[in-house]
Design brief:
The protein is elongated and about 85 Å long. Helix 2 crosses helix 4. It is mainly α. The longest helix has 35 residues.
C-alpha cells in the first residue's frame, strides 16, 4: 500500500470513529443536537491520539499497541467521568445509581471512537518509526546500470 493510501486510511479511521461516537451520542433517543458534543468528543479524540501515538511509536506490534491503547483510553475516560461525578456532591436520591451506571453508559457511547481511532492513531505512529523504503540504484533483473561517458 502506498504512503498516500495509508495516510488516507488512517485519517478515515480516526474521523469515522469520532463521527460514529458523535452520531451515537446525539441520537440516543432524545434528539440532542450534535454540535454541543463536538468539544467533548474532540477532547476524547485528543486523549486517544496522545495515548495511541505514544504506544504506537514505542511498541513494535501494531495489534498489541492498538489493544493497549483501547484499554488505557477507556480506563482514562471512566476514571475521569467517575472523578467528575464524585466531585459534584448531590442530595439526589439516585446519586448512587448514577455512579453505578456512568462506566457502562460511557463505555457503550465511546466504543466506536476508541476502536476505530485507536487503530488509526497506532497505524499513523508506527509509520513514523519505520524507515522509508528506498529504490534500488544498482542493476536490476540482470540488466547492467547505465554509465555516463
Amino acid at each position: 500500500m502506498t504512503d498516500r493510501k495509508q495516510k488516507i486510511l488512517n485519517a478515515s479511521l480516526i474521523s469515522a470513529g469520532g463521527f460514529a461516537t458523535l452520531l451515537f451520542m446525539s441520537r440516543d433517543g432524545n434528539g440532542q443536537n450534535p454540535l454541543p458534543l463536538l468539544i467533548p468528543v474532540g477532547i476524547a479524540l485528543l486523549i486517544n491520539g496522545i495515548v495511541g501515538c505514544l504506544l504506537g511509536r514505542f511498541i513494535k506490534s501494531r495489534w498489541l499497541a492498538s489493544v493497549s491503547t483501547m484499554i488505557i483510553t477507556e480506563q482514562v475516560y471512566v476514571l475521569a467521568a467517575m472523578y467528575l461525578t464524585l466531585a459534584r456532591a448531590s442530595n439526589d436520591p439516585h446519586y448512587g445509581e448514577e455512579l453505578n451506571m456512568i462506566p457502562v453508559v460511557l463505555v457503550v457511547f465511546t466504543t466506536p471512537m476508541v476502536i476505530l481511532s485507536s487503530i488509526g492513531f497506532v497505524r499513523l505512529a508506527s509509520s513514523w518509526s519505520r524507515p522509508k523504503e528506498t529504490q534500488p540504484t544498482g542493476p536490476r533483473d540482470g540488466v547492467p546500470a547505465a554509465h555516463d561517458p
